[in-house]
Fold this protein.
Amino acid sequence: MFISYAQSYFANGNARSIGGSCYQLTSAANWQLGSVWYANKLDLAKDFDLEFELNFGNNNATGADGIVFVMQTVGIKAIGASGAGIGFEGFSPSFGIEFDTWQNANFGDMASDHIAMFKNGSVDHKSSNSLVAATTAISGGANIEDGKNHLVRITWDFSDKRIQVYFDCVLRQTAVIDIQNRIFSGNNLVFWGFTSATGGSNNAHIACLSDDIIVQDTFAICKGESKPLNARESKNNSYIWTPNLYLDDTTIKNPECSSVVPITYYVQYTDRCGNQLQDTVDVVIDQPFIMDEGQDSLLCDGAKYLFNLTNAYDSVLWQNGNRSSYKFWDRSGYYTLRAWKGVCYDDDSFNITTNESPTIAISGKNIFCEGDSVELSVTATPIDAVFTWMNGSNASTYFYDKSEIVSAKATNECGSVEDFYGIREVILPDINLGKDTLNCKGDSLLLDPKIAGPYTYMWNTSANSSTLKVGAGGTYWLEVSELDLCYASDTINVIEINKPQLGSLSDIILCKNELIEIAIDNKYGMVLWNNNVEGERYSLLNYQGKLSVKSSNECGTDSKEIEVSLIDCYCNLLFPNAITPNADQLNDQFRPTVDCPKLRDFTMSVYNRWGELLFTSTDVNKTWDGSYQDIMVMNGVYYWIAVWSGIENGQIERKADKGILHVIR
């Protein structure tokens, strides 16, 4: 790869290129400000001879403000103040040669267009920054705002620290100043160029300078190559180069030289001021070389590819314009390098690939329950990493159903890495609270699953102990868990039973032909009747005499003997036809006389003559006192209706009756 670095300039503010190697610093307008800087720096540790043309416009009487030749270390974007500062005022450190076309009395300017030297951005002749007193630009103080280009030459002699200014081929100023140390603190490399400005008055200001303005007196050629030499500008464009060796033309300004040995040339010409001159041009030969510094490389984990070319080459140039001889690269890409030994150079190129060492992580539940499986996932980086499980699978997820140490490996060009992940199957013991069981009322029962381990116990009673003492019947369940993840449970029904109690059993009156069934609740035990009939129920029909009962279960035994009387049964009710509710305790209430040993149900209602219900009852022992809504009824005739049923001749008989009732007081 070949990169050409032609000499060029940078314009700022109102400055712009107008072609023909010329730059307009300001136009003929008020309050303009511009600067132009040469791309390559001047070396104050070497002699230089600069020649250029300046045009100060054609507005004489009111033209302003001029041009300053400047050396500075601020940078290629430096620009000062407009107006009297001529674009130079305001930045430091700097050295300036002003060509001033406007008299600023407050700065101590002379009336004529003049030349002076300053430092550090000042154009005040009365200040300590004034280095050389002003002289007229043209002897006698002639006007330079004439619309013409004026030839300016500035020379620097490093050994004598002498700087000279020629204007239109006439030496106008000479000064001995240690510019490098006095102004730039020992820095020998400085930017150079021109500034200009206008204020309330104006002119068009132009600087014309060629790309080869800095003329070399020594040229280096890489052996086997050629290079154009360069002479100064000739007034008549006539040159004579001697000796006539290795040059393609000895009569031009820039002959091509192809010498393979060191040689000294002499060039004769007439300069732009009409002087007959002969300059010396030395040619030195540098040896070509082959460079092989860069190798295609893989950089892992932020590693850097370091180049230390400090002692190997005079200078280097990377593809991004960087010129560092000590350089590292850490990004993927295609890189090019040019290195010089003298003027000989060679190119090299290489590729860098960057990557990260693989990482791998197994994730998922590390504990699962018996009979289940666990899904494990693997994540590997970077994207090119290839991973495999220990069984050879390269699926992103995999199921495991037993306790083990699982591993997975990730591999890429930077290496490999393995991750291990332990998983455990939780196997809970069988939970057995036993079969459903009986428990005597008042006793306690211990429920014990008979297991031990790192378990959590939870009973439906909210108890969390491994065993549970219960004293009441019901359904009990126990849930056993480990790590709040796996669960096992069992349920038991505890049936609470009482010790047999026959105290409520009493003698029985039995109607002839009546069938009675006696029931003793003892489903968790045994009932024995008259010592020979077993069962919770016993039927009586026309039975008379003693009846023995024995009831037993796990909680104990009870026995009893009752008397069964067999009688003839009828079911008749007799109702009075009059009452005298006068509170004398005689015939105050209306109620039937009952002749029914086995009365089963009964309903009686009393109405007035308009059919209005005054009283009703299903209790044969409840009487009507002759009132309605707590108010005694009038004397008179009332009506009653009664319906009942009972045992008669061993059968249930239903009967009804009605009649008239006289209420008399």
Notes: The helical segments are 179-182.
